[in-house]
């Protein structure tokens, strides 16, 4: 059994187990079926076969990802299986980014050999050397931010910005969507994988005495 | 669980065709079908159910599962009519059955009495078309109450000393407080303000056969998987379908309102999912397509009888866009808040609802909320402090420390109406259906830029008083992106200065009605959905009365 589907599945089963409770909505049976389907798809015993990246490219992507979110006492991009997410992304929602990866990965090799003439591959460099290369590659953000709300910017054509977005997504996405293997990304940021919560949620609402109106006068400012 | 729903043929002349199934369209569909009318709702987006929603941030934010897709609904932007417009995402709206009520935050604030009569109180603001509403708070109050009870709003009546009068308490208690709410409440009280439990269109208890919120935290931007968020999808649409008189027709992109020689609307022309065009015939047409697409549709429906666009004899269609102003601050605290759990907002304050224009030298008013509305990937995109490394150990350390310890303070405020701030049709860019793209022309009035700066200072004061270890604010400056699409077919008594009358009937076409954010005359204080729904409940009553007395078809 794949443990990564547990929270949503448990959540659904737990609700199904309290059938008759007013919480149950007409949607639960369909949701439970969808969760089961995702679970079965993920449970397939076949090893992952890269569909877009060549094995060589996958190795480079994995090495870059491992420096963007390194493994230390806590898991990093490698443990989250980010490279598989990137491959699937390039097959699906980020298919437009394939040329960016093609030229971007070539550029990474060029910078690698320019910086360390004995090397041709980023993945062959030591961690310190890799960090030196990334410092060169990661240009400061050039696009000026406009005020207001923002969504992750998927329109950039810069390879480092693109791969960073994909690595972050592969690290932090809900595992049902194909990344964040075994919830390791959520472990790093402290997000409980449960699918439902009850208050108190954290430290500050733990001892909340209940709402009371403010005592001062309500004058206009 | 599936039940057979009514379906009409396009050639069937139904009583009403409603364009859009969002906050306004959902309410109108439910009310009019309940009142005995035959209704077809044409919705541009797909019909997704709770089971189709997930916590997949890529599907929602990158693949636009429930919002407009910039590759299909293309937009252009320019600051002034003299500039050349360039293609960019200008507006964001829900593009599925339920519209923007599916993905919204669910802050549900009534307008106050002052919102309707503010021009009378403070007079003209140079460079604006600032004016009073033709209706008053008292006209809308019964409908706000209807929204609270029928759509489902949790809150605590009488909790804010600034609240307007109300005829009934909320149907259910407020949602539980979050860490952000506690921190905000303490800081605000220290500063002499009056924080109170936020009224939210999220069920704190089971209601009308729907589930209570399970506090999963995937709220802003996402469709609710348990139907606890009070979208039109979970509240109004099922009730409309249950009447057996209302058909919701998804994947139907309306691009023209058909007009006959007597200058009456005869129906709506739409492309189906395969791109084939149909005319859905109707005795009356209601546009509830949002404050961008309603005016665009009127302009696209330009015809011999209405060469400047349908119902546009005033020239006001698309103008006076008010996107609301805002200021956002961030605080990081010593201990985990775990504010990702729950919903976005649990505490707000309205001490700044009505500001003293004489004292400040600019016009404005607003409300402040404490929130955490960022799901994990989005948090990296917009929730990290300035100067956070882009990658490596420092980047990871910040993610590790901050995700559970960050909150936002969001000040929402007024925009002034400026005639040149407008939606119109682009001259060059075409959408995926070959129709002129939506063009947004927008430049914040100096008044609003000053106000945003002032709001930002207040946000930072609250963060100062809150004991944040680290704090910063979003940049302040001109806006180029709108989510609140307000004022673009305003209501008014004067047909030369407004597009619709107090019955939401267009001044020019007797059987054409508009109801959505475009109807609003002023911007309110930044949480428009509840007002859009109250307007829709009221419009449904007015339209029903007109139809029953033979004043629409006659």
Task: Describe what this molecule looks like in 3D.
- The complex is a heterodimer of chains A (221) and B (554).
- Chain A is an all-alpha fold and 221 residues long.
- Chain A folds into two domains: 3-42; 55-139 and 153-189, no CATH class.
- Chain A is elongated, with a radius of gyration of 23 Å.
- Chain A has helices spanning 6-17, 28-42, 55-68, 82-91, 98-115, 127-137, 159-172, 184-189.
- Chain B folds into two domains: 1-104 and 133-154 and 221-323 and 419-442 and 482-554, FAD/NAD(P)-binding domain; 162-198 and 325-413 and 444-479, Cholesterol Oxidase, domain 2.
- Chain B has helices at residues 23-34, 57-62, 113-122, 137-152, 179-190, 236-242, 293-300, 357-360, 376-382, 392-402, 446-465, 529-548; strands at 14-19, 39-42, 75-78, 86-87, 196-197, 246-249, 253-259, 265-271, 277-287, 325-332, 345-349, 366-371, 406-413, 422-430, 436-441, 470-473, 512-514.
- In chain B, the strands form three sheets. In chain B, strands 1, 2, 6, 7, 8, 9 and 17 form a seven-stranded mixed beta sheet that branches. Chain B has a six-stranded antiparallel beta sheet with strand order 5-11-12-13-10-16, with helices on one face.
- In chain B, helix 1 (23-34) links the parallel strand 1 (14-19) and strand 2 (39-42).
Structure in a nutshell:
The complex is a heterodimer of chains A (221) and B (554). Chain A is mainly alpha-helical. Helix content of chain A is 45%, strand content 0%.
Topology of this protein?
The complex is a heterodimer of chains A (221) and B (554).
Chain A: H1 6-17, H2 28-42, H3 55-68, H4 82-91, H5 98-115, H6 127-137, H7 159-172, H8 184-189
Helix pairs in contact in A: 1-2, 3-4, 4-7, 5-6, 5-7
Chain B: E1 14-19, H1 23-34, E2 39-42, H2 57-62, E3 75-78, E4 86-87, H3 113-122, H4 137-152, H5 179-190, E5 196-197, H6 236-242, E6 246-249, E7 253-259, E8 265-271, E9 277-287, H7 293-300, E10 325-332, E11 345-349, H8 357-360, E12 366-371, H9 376-382, H10 392-402, E13 406-413, E14 422-430, E15 436-441, H11 446-465, E16 470-473, E17 512-514, H12 529-548
Parallel strand pairs in B: 1-2, 1-9, 2-6, 3-15, 9-17
Antiparallel strand pairs in B: 3-4, 5-11, 7-8, 8-9, 10-13, 10-16, 11-12, 12-13, 14-15
Helix pairs in contact in B: 1-6, 1-12, 4-12, 5-11
């Amino acid at each position: 059994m794949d443990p990564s589907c547990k929270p949503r599945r448990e959540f659904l089963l737990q609700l199904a187990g309290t059938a008759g409770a007013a919480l149950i909505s007409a949607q639960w049976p369909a949701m439970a079926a969808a969760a089961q389907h995702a679970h079965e798809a993920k449970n397939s015993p076949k090893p992952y076969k890269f569909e877009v990246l060549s094995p060589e490219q996958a190795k480079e992507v994995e090495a870059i990802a491992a420096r963007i979110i390194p493994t230390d006492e806590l898991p990093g991009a490698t443990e989250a299986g980010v490279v598989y997410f990137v491959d699937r992304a390039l097959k699906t929602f980020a298919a437009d980014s394939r040329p960016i990866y093609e030229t971007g990965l070539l550029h990474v090799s060029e910078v690698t050999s320019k910086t360390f003439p004995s090397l041709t591959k980023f993945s062959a460099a030591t961690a310190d050397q890799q960090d030196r290369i990334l410092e060169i590659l990661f240009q400061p953000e050039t696009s000026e931010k406009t005020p207001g709300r923002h969504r992750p910017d998927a329109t950039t054509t810069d390879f480092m910005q693109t791969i960073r977005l994909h690595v972050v997504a592969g690290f932090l996405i809900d595992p049902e969507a194909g990344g964040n293997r075994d919830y390791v990304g959520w472990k790093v940021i402290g997000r409980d994988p449960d699918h439902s919560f009850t208050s108190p949620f954290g430290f500050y609402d733990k001892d909340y005495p209940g709402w009371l109106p403010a005592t001062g006068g309500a004058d206009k400012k | 669980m599936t039940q057979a729903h009514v379906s009409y043929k396009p050639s069937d002349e139904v009583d009403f065709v409603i364009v859009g199934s969002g906050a306004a369209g959902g309410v109108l569909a439910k009310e009019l079908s309940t009142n005995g009318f035959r209704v077809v709702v044409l919705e541009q987006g797909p019909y997704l159910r709770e089971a189709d929603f997930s916590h997949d941030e890529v599907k929602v934010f990158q693949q636009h599962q429930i919002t407009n897709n910039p590759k299909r609904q293309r937009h252009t932007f320019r600051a002034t009519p003299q500039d050349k417009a360039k293609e960019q995402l200008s507006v964001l709206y829900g593009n599925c059955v339920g519209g923007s009520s599916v993905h919204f935050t669910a802050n549900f604030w009534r307008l106050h009495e002052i919102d309707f009569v503010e021009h009378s109180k403070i007079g003209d603001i140079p460079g604006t078309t600032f004016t009073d509403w033709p209706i008053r708070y008292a006209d809308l109050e019964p409908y706000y109450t209807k929204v609270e009870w029928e759509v489902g709003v949790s809150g605590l009546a009488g909790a804010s000393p600034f609240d307007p009068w109300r005829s009934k308490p909320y149907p259910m208690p407020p949602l539980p407080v979050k860490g952000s709410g506690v921190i905000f409440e303490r800081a605000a009280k220290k500063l002499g303000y009056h924080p109170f439990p936020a009224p939210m269109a999220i069920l704190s208890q089971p209601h009308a056969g729907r589930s209570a919120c399970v506090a999963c935290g995937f709220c802003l931007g996402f469709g609710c998987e348990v139907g606890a968020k009070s979208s039109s999808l979970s509240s109004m649409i099922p009730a409309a379908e249950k009447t057996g008189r209302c058909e919701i027709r998804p994947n139907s992109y309306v691009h023209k309102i058909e007009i006959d020689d007597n200058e009456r609307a005869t129906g709506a022309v739409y492309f189906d999912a395969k791109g084939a065009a149909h005319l859905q015939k109707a005795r009356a047409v209601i546009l509830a397509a949002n404050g961008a697409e309603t005016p665009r549709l009127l302009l696209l429906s330009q015809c011999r009888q209405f060469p400047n666009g349908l119902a546009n004899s005033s020239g006001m269609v698309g103008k006076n866009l008010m996107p609301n102003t805002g200021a956002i601050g961030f605080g990081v605290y010593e201990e985990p808040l775990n504010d990702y759990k729950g919903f976005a907002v649990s505490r707000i304050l309205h001490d700044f609802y009505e500001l003293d224009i004489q004292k400040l030298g600019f016009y404005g008013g607003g409300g402040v909320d404490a929130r955490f509305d960022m799901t994990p990937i989005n948090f990296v995109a917009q929730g990290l402090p300035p100067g956070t490394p882009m990658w490596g150990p420092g980047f990871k350390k910040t993610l590790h420390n901050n995700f559970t310890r960050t909150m936002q303070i969001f000040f929402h405020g007024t925009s002034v109406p400026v005639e040149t701030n407008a939606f119109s049709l682009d001259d060059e860019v075409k959408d995926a259906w070959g129709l002129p793209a939506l063009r947004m022309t927008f430049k914040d009035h100096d008044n609003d830029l000053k106000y945003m700066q002032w709001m930002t200072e207040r946000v930072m004061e609250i963060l100062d008083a809150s004991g944040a270890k680290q704090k910063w604010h979003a940049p302040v400056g001109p806006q180029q992106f709108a989510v609140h699409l307000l004022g673009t077919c305003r209501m008014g008594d004067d047909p030369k200065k407004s597009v619709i009358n107090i019955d939401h009937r267009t001044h020019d076409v007797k059987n054409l009605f508009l109801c959505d954010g475009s109807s609003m005359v002023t911007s309110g204080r930044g949480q428009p959905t509840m007002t859009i729904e109250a307007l829709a409940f009221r419009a449904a009553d007015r339209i029903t009365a007109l139809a029953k007395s033979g004043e629409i078809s006659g």
